[in-house]
Predict the structure.
Amino acid sequence: MSMSSPAAKLSTFALVMLIIGAVDNIRNLPAAALFGSTLIFFFIFSAIVFLIPSALVSAELASSWTDKGGICYWVKLAFGDRCAFMAIWLQWIANLVWFPTILSFLAGVIAYLINPDLVHSKTYLISIILSIFWSLTLLNLKGIHVSAKFVAFCTITGMAVPMAMIIGLAIAWVLLGHPLQVSFTASSLWPSFSHIDSWVSLTAIMTAFAGMELSAVHVKEINNPQKTFPRALYISVWLILLTMILGSLAIAIVLPKDQINLVNGVMQAFTSFFAAYHISWLMPLITVMVLLGTFGSIISWVISPAKGLLQAAQLGFLPEFFQRVNKHGVAANLLITQAVIVSFICLAFLLMPSIGGSYWLLTALNIQLYMIMYVMMFIAALYLRYKHKDIQRSFAIPGGKAGMWIACILGLIGCAITLIVGFVPPAGLDVGSIFSYELIFISGIIVTVAPTLFFYIYQKKTSNIVIADTDLFESC
């Protein structure tokens, strides 16, 4: 997605909106709210071992190579084409797993305009998910372009305003003395470290924090990137951390834990707040606003992940079939294939005994794939600090090499913990037997990662095609 015209440059404000729009999402609040007041600890812990390290590393890498940017370019610089392809693949396939979760959230919001009970129907959810995704895919085949102004409008109207409203309503709820569904005593704020279930919340929180590096692909469109990018990341980190903690607590204080629905928990909270304040007439308005914000985040992501994979196809990692573009310059075959894969992924809603279980399974699978990509990013950052030690770095992580090591080790610790706890579903969520959940989950990881082996073999067989190194991953 092009965020500006060639003559325009992204300001700090525009970049902050881009980062927040990609990372901060109101749909992530219900999953975090499941863990009550302990979510405060886990959000702060996650910020220390993941959000801040990923932001610092992204800022240094993006401000060091301002001609190109993005995870695949950084990994290519460090470890070559094949590792870069793996990074692209992980980012692409993780987004495909993400689509059903964001679309199910959208379906849950739409249900509030029709019949809230529909959110419990798997047939309804799958029908809405497939209808919306295939419609957006067909639209993008015509080269649909979303301008930066529209993205900013959706971010402010459909994310920032509802987020501010739910936080404001929660603050008023506390001040007016309404009963709280969570307590804020010292014992309740501190989680129990003896049970791995206490750490499962990291999966939801890491999902909410993933994506800080995405804006780096626009480094050439940023005004004075050496200063603007780090400044925008600094502002974004604090805004994301603050809004995610307060927004999740807003749901946790008004809804009992066993009543929080992962798909439509946000709308449940708004319904409870509006009923208590006798302003239920605002429900249709807030529903439309949340719909708008969700549509704004989905439209560009339908085509954006495929663009990175198109470069891999043109480099010989994928058959020529996937390289073909239509008259609008869109990789039509790749886009249709993407829609087919998303359709199959949606079957997870049929495999699990509950919609909440399906939602969690896809959320956990999404973050597992993303965490593997982040492991590659942190290791690449360390390697590049030594491999290109003489390059001018307009922004460097404070503390020199020691600072880089600390940031990357913290990031790797966060990734390792998330990868481990990702195999454990939250207590109280109907996912069927643990054996069946683990079998489906592990199978999902294998099925999504295994194709890279075949593409490596295919690329090796077609390696007689000469590709200029300077053209590698031009759009990453």
